[in-house]
Design goal:
Elements: H1 47-58, H2 69-90, E1 94-100, H3 119-138, E2 143-149, H4 151-154, H5 163-180, E3 188-192, H6 202-213, H7 218-227, H8 229-251, H9 259-286, E4 293-296, E5 307-309, E6 328-330, H10 342-345, E7 349-351, E8 359-362, E9 368-371, H11 380-389, H12 399-405
Helix pairs in contact: 1-2, 1-3, 3-5, 6-9, 7-8, 7-9, 8-9
C-alpha cells in the first residue's frame, strides 16, 4: 500500500483516558500528521522552532569522536531550526520515523531473558513517550512518531524466529506502548510489513519486498559494500555481531557449527542484512512525509537536520549503542536500605551482561527484568559489588573472553537451532 505523503486535514483522534487507555490501539495506517491547527503564515524564525531544536538536540548527543563538537552543535542547531520552521509556519505536527522493535535476541541468558518483549522494551517506549511529551510541551501541535517494526523481513536472520514468534513480539510491543504512552498513544504509531505488502506467505512477501524496495542482486549489494567505506564499516560490525551470537549459541549447545562455517554464515548473513536494511529504509521513506526527521538508535550517528541519533531508554549512557531488543535491563531493585531515594535506586540500563548473580524477575506489568536475589537485599556492599561486575557491551568486546568467564544460567536446555536463510 502506498500512502499519500501530503498532510491530511482531519480531526485528531480522541484518545481514551483512564483504564480505557490501555485497551486503545492506535494502529491505523495514518502515517502522516492529521491534526493541523493552523495554516496561517508565521515568521520564518520564532522562539518556538529554536526551542524545538534545543529539545531535540538534547535527545540526540554527539558521538565523542566528533571534532569541534561545539561548532558542529551550533551549525546543526541553525539548520534544524530552519527545517522545523517549515512545520511551525504551517501549524503542523513534526513528523518523525524510524525502524525499530523487530524481535527479541535469541541469545537467551546473555542478551535476553526470554525471546519476548520485556522491561527493556518498556523502558524504551517510556522514553519515546517522554520525547513526544517534550516536543508537545514546547510546540502544542506536537509530533507524530512512526515506528516501522521490521521483524517479519528480518526474522530469517535471527535463529528460530518464525512467523508466530514474530507476531507475538509485535503484539506485545503494541500492548506495552498502550500501557506506558498515556496521552501520547495516538502520536506513537507502530507499523509492520503486513501494512504495506500483500503476499500469500512471508517468503513471497519478502521476495516482493526486496524486489520493490531494494536491490535483488546480492552481488551488487556486495560491490556497494566494497565501494562505500561507511557501508563497509556497518557490514563488518554486523558480521561480528552474528559471529558473537553464533559463538554463544554454540557454547550453550544450541548450535552445532564449526568455526569456519560460523564465520562463513556470519559473513553471508551480514550481506543479507545490509540488503534488507536498505530496502526497509526505502519502504519507510515512501510512507512518510518528505520532510520527516529520521530517528536512529545508533549513537554513532552524527546528527543532521534530517537524521538524529537518539537514546533508546530512560538511562542515558554516553556512546551507548545497544538496543533493548538485544540487551538486558538490570534494575537496582533493593529496598532503600542505604539512603538512596527511589529515583536513584533504578539502575535501568541496557546491558550486555553475564549479569553476575542477578536473577530474572517480573515488574508490575509482568515483564521480565534482572534484579537482585533476595539474599542480598539487605547487603548494600554486595549490591555494589554485583553492579560493578556488569559488563557493558561495546563494539570492541571480545566474545571469546566473555564466554571464557560466562556462567550459564540455571535454565532448562532448549532445542538445537539451525541456520536456515530465506
Amino acid at each position: 500500500m502506498q500512502l499519500n505523503n501530503s498532510f491530511m486535514a482531519c480531526p485528531r483522534p480522541v484518545v481514551p483516558a483512564g483504564p480505557k487507555a490501555a485497551a486503545f490501539s492506535a494502529t491505523s495506517l495514518s502515517l502522516v500528521p492529521t491534526h493541523i491547527h493552523s495554516t496561517e503564515a508565521q515568521p520564518r524564525f520564532t522562539a518556538t522552532q529554536h526551542d524545538l531544536a534545543e529539545v531535540l538536540l538534547a535527545h540526540a548527543p554527539l558521538p565523542s569522536s566528533v571534532e569541534n563538537p561545539e561548532q558542529v552543535k551550533a551549525d546543526l542547531f541553525e539548520r534544524l531550526s530552519e527545517k522545523l520552521a517549515t512545520f511551525v509556519r504551517r501549524g503542523q505536527p513534526v513528523p518523525f520515523y524510524g525502524p525499530s522493535f523487530a524481535f527479541k535476541s535469541p541469545a537467551v541468558g546473555l542478551r535476553s531473558i526470554e525471546e519476548k518483549a520485556d522491561a527493556a522494551e518498556k523502558d524504551a517506549l517510556i522514553y519515546i513517550a517522554e520525547l513526544a511529551k517534550d516536543v508537545q510541551h514546547i510546540y502544542p501541535q506536537g509530533g507524530i512518531f512512526n515506528w516501522f517494526q521490521d521483524g517479519h523481513m528480518f526474522a530469517p536472520f535471527m535463529l528460530g524466529h518464525g512467523e508466530e514468534k514474530t507476531d507475538e513480539y509485535l503484539y506485545d510491543i503494541r500492548r506495552i506502548r498502550n500501557l506506558v504512552s498515556g496521552d501520547q498513544v495516538g502520536n506513537i504509531k507502530l507499523h509492520t510489513s503486513r501494512d504495506f505488502l500483500d503476499a500469500p506467505d512471508l517468503h513471497r512477501m519478502r521476495e516482493k519486498f526486496i524486489r520493490t524496495y531494494g536491490q535483488p542482486d546480492l552481488d551488487k549489494v556486495k560491490q556497494k559494500v566494497c565501494d562505500d567505506p561507511r557501508l563497509k564499516a556497518d557490514f563488518l560490525g554486523l558480521k561480528k555481531f552474528y559471529e558473537d551470537i553464533y559463538k554463544y549459541l554454540r557454547e550453550i549447545g544450541e548450535l552445532n557449527i564449526s568455526t569456519s562455517a560460523l564465520q562463513k554464515e556470519a559473513k553471508a548473513t551480514a550481506y543479507q542484512m545490509i540488503q534488507t536494511r536498505e530496502a526497509w529504509e526505502n519502504l519507510a521513506r515512501h510512507q512518510v512525509p518528505e520532510d520527516s526527521i529520521r530517528l536512529s538508535f545508533s549513537l554513532g550517528t552524527v546528527p543532521t537536520k534530517d537524521k538524529l541519533g537518539v537514546y533508546m531508554g530512560t538511562s542515558r549512557i554516553p556512546d551507548r549503542w545497544l538496543t533493548p531488543w538485544h540487551g538486558l535491563l538490570v534494575k537496582d531493585d533493593a529496598e532503600d536500605t542505604n539512603g538512596r531515594c527511589a529515583k536513584e535506586k533504578i539502575f535501568s540500563k541496557f546491558f550486555y551482561a553475564n549479569a553476575v548473580g542477578f536473577v530474572p524477575k517480573k515488574d508490575e506489568d509482568g515483564l521480565n527484568y534482572m534484579g537482585f536475589p533476595d539474599s542480598v537485599l539487605d547487603d548494600p556492599a554486595k549490591q555494589e559489588e554485583m553492579l560493578g561486575k556488569i559488563k557493558l557491551l561495546s563494539p570492541g568486546t571480545n566474545m571469546d573472553e566473555v564466554l571464557a568467564d560466562y556462567q550459564r544460567p540455571d535454565t532448562e536446555p532448549r532445542e538445537p537451532r539451525t541456520i536456515a536463510m530465506a
